[in-house]
TrEMBL record:
This enzyme scavenges exogenous and endogenous cytidine and 2'-deoxycytidine for UMP synthesis. It comes from Anaeroglobus geminatus F0357. Pfam families: dCMP_cyt_deam_1. InterPro entries: APOBEC/CMP_deaminase_Zn-bd, CMP_dCMP_dom, Cyt/Deoxycyt_deaminase, Cyt_deam_tetra, Cytidine_deaminase-like. The keyword Chloroplast does not apply. The lineage of its organism: Bacteria, Bacillati, Bacillota, Negativicutes, Veillonellales. Its cofactor is Zn(2+). It is an enzyme of class 3 (hydrolase). Substrate binds at residues 45-51. This is Cytidine deaminase. PANTHER family: CYTIDINE DEAMINASE. Belongs to the cytidine and deoxycytidylate deaminase family. It catalyses: cytidine + H2O + H(+) = uridine + NH4(+); 2'-deoxycytidine + H2O + H(+) = 2'-deoxyuridine + NH4(+). It comes from the Bacteria.
Amino acid sequence: MDKNTVETLVKAAREARENAYAPYSRFKVGAALLGTDGKIYRGCNVENGSYGLTSCAERNAVFNAVAAGCRTFRAVALAGTADYTVPCGACRQVLAEFRVPVVILTKEDGTYTCAALDSLLPQPFSL
C-alpha cells in the first residue's frame, strides 16, 4: 500500500477519533476503513454504562461500510489515545470475517506501523 493512501487513512482515523463517546474509559479510538470501492468508512468507539453494550471503532467502521453496501476492504487504520492501539479480540474476528488484510497502527507523533491481520489473529473462527 502506498504511503499517501496510508497517511490518508491515518488522518481519517484521527478525525474519527474526535467523535468518540468515551466518558467512562476516556480512551477514544477512531478507525478508517478503506473499501475496494475507494471510499473510506469511519467509525469511533461508543461506550455505554452497561459495558457489554459498548461498540468499538473498528466494528463501527465495518458496520457502516456494510450498511453502505461495501463488503470488501483493503486496509483499516486505528488511532487511539495510546501508542499503537491494537484491535480487541472481537474486532479482530470481525475484521477477519471481512478479510481486511492490513491493520495500520498509529502513534500520536504521526508514525505508524502496518500489520497483517493474519499476524494479529492467526486462527480466526470461520464456518
